[in-house]
UniProtKB/TrEMBL annotation:
Organism expressing this protein natively: Maridesulfovibrio hydrothermalis AM13 = DSM 14728
EC number: 6.3.1.5
PANTHER family per the UniProt record, alphabetical: GLUTAMINE-DEPENDENT NAD(+) SYNTHETASE, NH 3 /GLUTAMINE-DEPENDENT NAD + SYNTHETASE
Catalytic activity from the UniProt record: deamido-NAD(+) + NH4(+) + ATP = AMP + diphosphate + NAD(+) + H(+)
Keyword Amino-acid biosynthesis in annotation: no
Protein name: NH(3)-dependent NAD(+) synthetase
Length: 301
């Protein structure tokens, strides 16, 4: 199987290619990046700073209930490295109030303010009005999603999926990590487990294990039995960032058979099938077209 890892020279070339892309796309305009304290937003912020300079870059982080202190500290260190003020926006209570209001207004949908899923989606979605407000101040919104997240559906189309420019959506997480070493990303950020950061102890691999068990994005809160959780943990035991990237690449781009993927990656046939089902479901569910509209009549009315 073709290796998704970049050579040192390829990583350097890709870094330079992204910087030139950002220079051309931004054309000297000011840009805003939402920082999470994770690897992807760290890399994107550093790339944008290289492209247009720190004076044209706005950084913000949303303070949320249950966020880990290390994520806030990572964001502050990043801002210090780039010599950019970090705007710390306190929305701690809003996601739960928001889901409470939805639950009261639309009981048929069974929104769960006391669950993990709905409040986490709200934490992500409530970044959108911040981006929208900065956009109307003349800022270009820069996205931070990577290719792994996009191909597995780990994004909200009207949340973190919204951006004017997405400079790393073509890179798998493994490749983002490789480029981070060239940009000065701090080692604690590089080495920490990938996480959306919506609750303490959350990791992307655990979230992915639940989605693989479900064989589709989990759309609303559900109960998992002890037997379910045992199976989820067995799935998680087979996962690593690089293995996930290799499997997604093999399925989506190399069209390899399950037996070949199993031989190349060591992932079980059963979990390879789960990946196939998740990728298909995520594509149908998360990648619906936007802005569908009728064309004007021939007379322009």
């Amino acid at each position: 199987m073709n290796n998704i890892n970049l050579s040192k020279q390829d990583a350097e070339n890709e870094k330079n290619r992204i910087v030139e892309f950002l220079k051309k796309s931004l054309g000297g305009k000011k840009a805003v990046v939402g920082i999470s304290g994770g690897l992807d937003s760290d890399v994107v912020a550093r790339l944008v700073a290289l492209a247009i300079g720190s004076n044209n870059l706005k950084l913000f982080i949303v303070l949320q209930d249950d966020m880990e202190e290390r994520h806030l500290e990572n964001a502050r260190v990043l801002a210090k490295d780039l010599r950019v003020p970090l705007q710390e926006i306190d929305l701690k209570k809003y996601p739960f109030d928001f889901i409470n209001q939805l639950a009261n207004a639309d009981p048929q949908e069974n929104f769960r303010p006391d669950g993990l899923l709905d409040s986490s989606r709200a934490k992500c979605s409530l970044r959108t009005p911040i981006l929208s407000t900065y956009q109307d101040r003349g800022y270009i919104v820069i996205g931070t999603s990577n290719r792994t997240e996009y191909e597995l559906g780990f994004f909200l189309p009207f949340g973190d999926g919204i951006a004017h420019i997405k400079p790393i959506t073509h890179l798998y997480k493994t490749q983002v990590r490789q480029i981070s070493h060239l940009l000065g990303t701090r080692i604690p950020v590089i080495d920490q487990p990938a996480s959306a950061g919506f609750w303490k102890g959350e990791t992307d691999l655990e979230d992915l294990a639940y989605w693989l068990f479900n064989e589709a994005p989990i759309q609303q809160e559900r109960t998992f039995t002890d037997a379910d959780i045992l199976e989820v943990n067995e799935i998680k035991s087979e996962l690593s960032t690089e293995r996930v990237d290799e499997v997604v690449y093999a399925i989506n781009w190399l069209n390899l058979k399950d037996e070949t993927i199993n031989s190349d990656t060591g992932l079980s046939i059963k979990n390879i099938l789960r990946f196939r089902n998740l990728i298909k479901a995520a594509s149908e569910f998360k990648c619906k077209p936007y802005n569908i509209q009728l064309e004007p009549n021939p007379d322009g009315r």
